[in-house]
Design brief:
elongated, 0% strand, 434 Repressor (Amino-terminal Domain), mainly alpha, single chain, 5 helices
């Protein structure tokens, strides 16, 4: 799995700079941001959603419990939520 440290090594920048570039924060030159994003594309980096959720204490996930799936209306709601 590719980590942010791999991007740091490839970009020759600090973890803070790479993090700011990836998160669209200010304080990173356009040239550096483009270089970091090029490294990200080359390495096919994908952020770890679980790690991000733990760090931010937010997962942006909704849990829904249905009593049974035999009801057509519940199946409809499930299909709407799944999209």
């Amino acid at each position: 799995m590719i980590t942010i440290k791999d991007i740091v090594r490839g970009a020759g920048a600090s973890i803070a700079t790479v993090s700011r570039a990836l998160n669209g924060k200010e304080g990173v030159s356009e040239e550096t941001k483009n270089h970091v994003l090029e490294i990200v594309d080359n390495l096919e980096y994908r952020s770890n959603a679980l790690a991000r959720g733990l760090k931010l204490n937010r997962t942006n996930t909704i849990g829904v419990l249905f009593p049974e799936m035999s009801s057509q209306i519940l199946k409809f709601y499930y299909q709407c939520l799944y999209l």
